[in-house]
Design a protein that fits this description.
Number of strands: 12
Largest sheet: 7 strands, mixed
Shape: globular
Distance between the termini: 34 Å
CATH class of the largest domain: Alpha Beta
Strand order of the largest sheet: 3-2-1-6-9-8-10
Number of helices: 14
Structural class: alpha/beta
CATH topology of the largest domain: Spore Coat Polysaccharide Biosynthesis Protein SpsA, Chain A
Number of domains: 2
């Protein structure tokens, strides 16, 4: 219920009625005062109306857009989303780079993930694999930033461990460490919320993602993005990624949510769209001018909102129906990766439940609050 003090606005009334006490108030001021008086006396009713609005109102009202199309013509998609997409000769590009984006404080997560790779049942590739893909660790800050430089040194030492070095030599043609060279402000995630659209603000992660695309697109046709909390549950995921990179001209190919929906404070239809987004960990097509333009439109609309959810919200909006029609085939779900969020999982259960899964994106062991049990829906 809206508190009573919300409607006690004597200062606002003094501002509205700047006139002699006995004179007639201006029409706008009189109307506003009437509205305030009604709200003060009907706050329980208004609270109930707001609750009904939140539960039932769809802010993407189809009749409104249908009327707009009737009056002004059907929606059309920007030609920049479908024409003249190729930037360079893709035949000259290497087929795949596995990119691990990280910040200085995430080295422990990287260590956990790499420790699994030395196991033959969890290794990136099989023993008969000919190394084609490259592996690159992509730090957000510049080498001049001391925590970043220290993490880079520790990471180099980590990669030289004999058993791990042997696996990397067998599975990857080249291993490198690169830097996005972001400033402190550019690399910071505020994690504030857009409560209406159900979007979390992650400007730092977005900037690192964009930097990675522009950094690697000059040499590679596809990028497999695996954050430090992505870990293997079966061997051969590099070979599978190389195979899936051939699956048409997709822009993003990754995992859907594989955990139970939770309470969502956003308005409809945004809270439902969130359940359908493709997680940011996955395959991306590089050196594609049309994909660049799509991400530009998403940033223009949603700013620094988390890029994976924002890309989904944008194309599923009824306002952008023509965009959806032109780009739906560009976003594909892959069974190779399972996204379990902060749910606690049993690896044997995951292997039994998802027979094609090779990688898992899950952060239950890193979150500061109790995680939930996994449940497919």
């Amino acid at each position: 219920m809206v508190p009573a003090r919300f409607f006690q606005l004597p200062s606002l009334k003094r501002l509205l009625f700047v006139h002699p006490p006995k004179s007639r108030p201006p029409p706008v001021a009189a109307f506003l005062y009437t509205v305030l008086h009604f709200c003060r006396r009907r706050r329980a009713t208004l609270s109930f109306i707001f609750l009904l609005t939140w539960v039932f109102l769809d802010l993407d009202a189809y009749p409104v857009w249908w009327l707009s199309w009737l009056l002004y013509g059907p929606p059309t998609a920007d030609e920049a989303l479908s024409h003249n997409c190729t930037k360079t000769d893709r035949a000259a590009l290497r087929p795949l780079v596995v990119v691990v984006p990280l910040i200085a404080s995430q080295l422990l997560r990287v260590d956990d993930a790499l420790a699994r790779w030395v196991s033959p049942s969890l290794a990136p590739c099989s023993h008969s694999h000919q190394p084609v893909a490259h592996l690159s660790f992509f730090l957000d800050r510049a080498m001049s930033d001391e925590p970043t430089a220290r993490s880079a040194r520790e990471l180099r030492s980590m990669l030289q461990r004999p058993r791990l070095a042997a696996v990397l030599h067998r599975c990857f043609a080249h291993v490198s460490i690169a830097f996005a060279n972001l400033s402190r402000e550019q690399s910071t995630n505020s994690h504030s919320m857009d409560l209406v659209h159900n979007l979390v603000i992650t400007g730092g992660s977005n900037n690192q993602f964009e930097s990675a695309i522009h950094y690697y697109e000059k040499r590679f046709s596809h990028m497999l993005l695996v954050e430090p909390d992505v870990y293997s549950i079966r061997a051969g995921w590099v070979e599978q990624a190389l195979e899936e990179a051939k699956y048409g001209t997709f822009w993003q190919r990754g995992a859907t949510m594989r955990y139970a929906p939770r309470f969502n404070i956003g308005f409809a239809p945004f809270r439902a769209r969130y359940q359908r987004h493709i997680n940011g960990n996955g395959l991306y097509r590089l050196s594609d001018r049309c994909f660049d333009h799509y991400r530009y439109l998403v940033r223009k609309r949603y700013g620094s909102a988390a890029y994976d959810v924002a890309m989904c919200q944008y194309r599923l909006s009824i306002e952008n129906l023509a965009v959806y029609q032109a780009t739906a085939h560009r976003f594909q779900v892959s069974p190779m990766i399972v996204a379990v969020g902060v749910t606690r999982v049993d690896e044997d259960d995951l292997r039994n439940q998802f027979e094609e899964a090779l990688l898992v994106h899950g952060k239950a062991k890193y979150v500061p609050f109790p995680a939930l049990n996994v449940m497919q829906y």
